[in-house]
């Protein structure tokens, strides 16, 4: 005979255990969802997406039943701008995920920051799928190439920014070099005009004094005048000796 009372005790225990785990899991997920919704978004509001959705769902003007028709070219341009912003966000997430994970393992950042990052990653992936669907709805097959076009636009924008920085720096360097060149030229001209650092007088008592000083130096140093006098005295003595 089967002892149903003995079997009911373990089954009851298993049922209570499974129910407790299910209740705990449900409460934990609800609490986690509440905390995730209360966290500050990782990225600022997606203005490009809001603009595209506003163009796509225009309200009719007062007194009219139908909303104004938006050309497909404007919708495509707005969707491409939205994809460009998505490319920027995806690149930021991919570049920062490994570094943020390392900081989380070291305990340098809290779990709230990591949850914000994971939530931003999930939102970015959902945004990419939405953009692909919208692109295929506007033009068949465009969803497979819209992000390639957006990526090219992103690289072109980075290149233009880099070129603008280089041109601005080159202009500043050019202005600095012109000032430095003018300073060097002025110093060089001053050195050519006055190599000793003081102007020489060309007339007046200072000039006479300078001339007398130069003559004295020439005489004391055995200049041409001294050499001529020495030569004349030697010649005269030789003549006198010849006469004798």
Q: Tell me, what's the shape?
A: flat
| SSE run | HHHHHHH
Based on CA atoms alone, the radius of gyration comes out at 47 Å
Percent of sequence in beta strands: under 5%
First CA to last CA: what distance? 177 Å
User: Total strand count, please?
Assistant: 0
Summarize the topology.
Blueprint: H1 4-38, H2 47-56, H3 72-106, H4 111-138, H5 146-193, H6 205-220, H7 224-243
Detailed description of the structure:
The chain is an all-alpha fold. It has helices at residues 4-38, 47-56, 72-106, 111-138, 146-193, 205-220, 224-243. Helix 3 (72-106) packs antiparallel against helix 4 (111-138). The longest helix is centred in the C-terminal third of the chain and has 48 residues, at 146-193.
What would a concise description of this structure say?
With 244 residues, this protein is mainly alpha-helical. Helix content is 79%, strand content 0%.
Index terms:
7 helices; single chain; mainly alpha; 244 residues
């Amino acid at each position: 005979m089967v002892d149903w009372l003995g079997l009911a005790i373990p089954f009851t225990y298993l049922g209570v255990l499974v129910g407790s785990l299910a209740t705990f899991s449900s409460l934990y997920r609800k609490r986690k969802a509440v905390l995730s919704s209360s966290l500050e978004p990782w990225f600022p509001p997606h203005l490009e997406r809001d603009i595209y959705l506003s163009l796509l769902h225009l309200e009719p003007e007062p007194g009219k039943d139908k909303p104004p028709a938006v050309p497909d070219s404007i919708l495509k341009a707005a969707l491409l701008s939205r994809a460009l912003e998505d490319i920027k966000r995806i690149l930021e997430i991919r570049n920062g995920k490994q570094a943020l994970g390392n900081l989380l393992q070291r305990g340098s950042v809290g779990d709230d920051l990591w949850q914000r990052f994971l939530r931003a990653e999930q939102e970015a992936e959902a945004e990419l799928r939405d953009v692909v669907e919208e692109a295929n709805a506007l033009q068949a097959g465009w969803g497979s190439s819209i992000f390639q076009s957006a990526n090219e636009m992103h690289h072109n924008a980075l290149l233009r920014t880099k070129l603008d920085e280089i041109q601005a720096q080159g202009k500043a360097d050019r202005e600095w070099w012109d000032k430095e060149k003018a300073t060097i030229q002025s110093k060089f001209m001053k050195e050519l005009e006055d190599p000793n650092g003081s102007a020489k007088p060309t007339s007046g008592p200072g000039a006479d004094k300078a001339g007398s000083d130069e003559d004295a130096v020439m005489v004391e140093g055995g200049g041409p005048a001294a050499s001529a006098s020495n030569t004349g005295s030697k010649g005269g003595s030789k003549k006198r000796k010849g006469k004798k």
